[in-house]
Write a structure and sequence with these properties.
It comes from Leptotrichia alba. The chain has 162 residues and is α+β, with helices and mostly antiparallel strands. It has helices at 12-19, 26-38, 51-58, 92-104, 107-114, 129-138, 142-151, and strands at 5-10, 44-48, 78-82, 85-90, 155-161.
Length: 162
C-alpha cells in the first residue's frame, strides 16, 4: 500500500477550485496546482512512505479512516477522491482538534507505544527497528504543519496514489 503521501495546506479558494474538478481530473489538478506550488514550503508536510505506519500507530496498530481525531491526523477526513488516488480533507474545526490531540499526546510516544501492535500482514513495509526510526523521523513536522495551517486559516488535504 505504501506510496509517497503529502499533507497540503490550502486556502478556501483553492479548496473550492479543487472540488470543482471532475473526479477523473482532481488528482492531476492537485499535482499541477497545489503540489507544484507548495511542495517545498511550509504549506506541505511530506510524509514519504511513512504515512501508512504513522496512521496505523495513531490508531493503536489497526487501520481506521474516519473523520474523527485521531483517525484523521493523516489519512482520514472528508473523502474528496478514492479511486486509486486518495485525497481527504480536514477543515479548520478538525485542524483545531488535531492540534489539541497532538499537543496532549506526543506523536513520538504514540508511535513508540503502538508500533509493536501493527500486524505485519497488514503493513506494506518491513516492521523492524529501522522502520520505527523512519516513522519517527517523518512524523516530526506534523504538529507544526497543522499549527501553521491553523494560523494561516488553511484547510488541509492529504494525498497519496495507492
Amino acid at each position: 500500500m505504501s506510496r509517497l503521501a503529502v499533507l497540503y495546506g490550502i486556502t478556501n479558494q483553492e479548496l473550492e477550485d479543487l472540488k470543482k474538478q471532475d473526479e477523473k481530473d482532481i488528482y492531476e489538478y492537485l499535482l499541477e496546482n497545489i503540489e507544484e506550488k507548495y511542495f517545498d514550503t511550509s504549506r506541505a508536510c511530506n510524509l514519504d512512505k511513512a504515512w501508512e505506519g504513522i496512521q496505523l500507530c495513531i490508531n493503536g496498530g489497526k487501520w481506521s479512516e474516519t473523520s474523527n481525531v485521531p483517525d484523521n491526523i493523516v489519512f482520514g477526513g472528508e473523502i474528496l477522491l478514492n479511486d486509486g488516488y486518495i485525497i481527504t480533507l480536514k477543515n479548520s474545526n478538525e485542524i483545531k482538534k488535531i492540534i489539541t490531540y497532538l499537543e496532549n499526546y506526543q506523536i513520538d510516544d504514540i508511535i513508540k507505544s503502538n508500533f509493536s501492535k501493527i500486524d505485519e500482514n497488514e503493513y506494506s513495509l518491513e516492521k523492524d527497528e529501522d522502520n520505527l526510526e523512519f516513522l519517527l523521523e517523518w512524523s516530526q513536522e506534523i504538529l507544526e504543519f497543522y499549527k501553521n495551517a491553523l494560523k494561516e486559516n488553511l484547510n488541509v488535504v492529504f494525498s497519496v496514489e495507492l
